[in-house]
Design a protein that fits this description.
7 helices, 40% helix, 5-stranded antiparallel beta sheet, single chain, alpha+beta, NADH Oxidase, 5 strands, binds flavin mononucleotide
Length: 193
C-alpha cells in the first residue's frame, strides 16, 4: 500500500450532506465510483446488495414522498418541517441508495450478508474521497419506513445507507475519535475453560 493510499484511509472524513454541492461525479466518474464500491468481500459470492442511483428527478420524487409521509404521520407539522423533509434526499448532487438484499435461510449467515452491504457503503465513501469528492452515509427514518422501501421497489430488503456525494464546500474539523488503545486488546491465551 502506498503512503498516499494509507493517508487516504487515515484522513477520510464525512462531510454533511447539506455541505455537498455541484459538481458531483460525471458519468465516467460515477462508473469508477460504483466499480470501487462493489469490490467488497462477499462470503459465498452472493452479491447481497444493490445500488440505486437516484438522479435529480428521483430525488425530487423521493422528497415529495418524505414530505407527504411526514405530514401524514405528525398531527400538526410546521410547514418548515415539511420542507426540510422534502429537501432531505435532495441535499447533494448525487444520491446512492445501498440496499442489503439478503437471502434468508442460506448457509451464509444473514449477518455476514449485511456486513458485506456495509462494506459497499464504506468503499463508496473512500472512493468518493479518493476522487476528490466527499460523501455522507446516512439512514434516518426513511431508511426504516415501509412506504419508502416499497416506493423504491425494495419492500423486502433493507437500506444499508443513503450515500450522498458531492463537492465539499469546506473541510470539517476532525471529530474526537477512539484511540487505537481504547478499542484494542491483545489476547495470547491460554484458554482456561
Ligand atoms: C449505518 C450508518 C448510518 C448513519 N446514519 C446517520 C444519520 O442518519 N445521521 C447522521 O448524522 N449520521 C449518521 N451516520 C454517521 C455518519 O455517517 C458519520 O459517520 C458521522 O457523521 C461521523 O463522520 P466520520 O465519517 O468523519 O467519522 C451513520 C453512520 C452509519 C455507519
Amino acid at each position: 500500500m502506498t503512503d498516499a493510499t494509507l493517508d487516504l484511509l487515515r484522513t477520510r472524513r464525512s462531510v454533511a450532506a447539506r455541505d455537498l454541492v455541484e459538481p458531483g461525479p460525471d458519468e465516467a466518474q460515477l462508473e469508477k465510483l460504483l466499480e470501487a464500491g462493489l469490490r467488497v468481500p462477499d462470503h459465498g459470492k452472493l452479491g447481497p446488495w444493490r445500488i440505486q442511483i437516484v438522479d435529480k428527478n428521483g430525488q425530487a420524487a423521493l422528497g415529495d414522498l418524505y414530505a407527504r409521509l411526514f405530514a401524514e404521520t405528525y398531527p400538526d407539522p410546521r410547514p418548515e418541517q415539511i420542507e426540510l423533509e422534502r429537501k432531505r434526499p435532495q441535499q447533494a448532487p448525487l444520491l446512492l441508495i445501498v440496499w442489503s438484499v439478503r437471502q434468508a435461510g442460506h448457509k451464509i449467515p444473514e449477518f455476514e450478508q449485511i456486513l458485506s452491504a456495509g462494506a459497499v457503503c464504506q468503499n463508496l465513501l473512500l472512493a468518493a474521497h479518493a476522487m476528490g469528492f466527499a460523501a455522507n452515509w446516512l439512514t434516518g427514518w426513511p431508511a426504516y419506513d415501509t412506504h419508502v422501501k416499497a416506493a423504491l421497489g425494495h419492500a423486502r430488503d433493507d437500506i444499508a445507507g443513503f450515500i450522498f456525494v458531492g463537492t465539499p464546500t469546506a473541510q470539517p474539523e476532525d471529530r474526537p475519535r477512539k484511540s487505537v488503545a481504547q478499542v484494542t486488546e491483545r489476547w495470547s491465551g491460554p484458554v482456561e475453560i
